[in-house]
Specification:
By secondary structure, the protein is mainly α. It has 2 domains: 4-90, Orthogonal Bundle (Rna Polymerase Sigma Factor, Chain: A); 126-187, Orthogonal Bundle (Arc Repressor Mutant, subunit A). It contains 8 helices and no strands. 14% of the residues are buried. GO terms for molecular function: DNA binding; sigma factor activity. Residues 118-163 form the RNA polymerase sigma factor 70 region 4 type domain. Belongs to the sigma-70 factor family. ECF subfamily. One of its GO terms (biological process) is DNA-templated transcription initiation.
Length: 189
Amino acid sequence: MITDKDFEDFLDNDQKAFKKVFETYQHVLMYYVVEATQNESTAEEIVQEAFVQLFLQKDKLSTPEQIYPFLFTVVKRQTISTYRRKMSSKRYMDELGALWSEAEHTVLERIAGAEIQEAFDRSVNELPLRQKQVFLLSRLENKSYQEIADHLGVSKNTVKNQLISATKIIKLKLARFQNLILSFFLFFL
């Protein structure tokens, strides 16, 4: 308990009086803040800040009975402020994490897509001329076997065989991307 004499000494900047005030109220304030924050180091910071504020604003107090309400009010406000900062920070980190995750997926999609597209283009360009023509007319221009046969002056059966051969060659050349494509699609499911 802080006596009137202790309080007068405290107001006169007596270190022993301040230590007595600290020892009288520190434990009860720590208990309150640790319960509220679930973090002992945060609680220590908040309680220390309350005693700093008490020391700086001690001239506003007129009786020893005002010490605890003053400290409690400062601790309560600091705890609420810390909680708000923590929640704002958590919300910010969650949003930032989502943005980073989204950006990472987009970058991965672009890299994988670009590599696959480049390998596909290279495979098509390496096909024999007739197979390349048939493949491009069929897959890129969506022409039927008959339309391709008429355009190239070959039989419908030749178009079918050329397309089957071209598709096999491209599949073989893109086989190394099979695991990448599979993992890519599984990753985003």
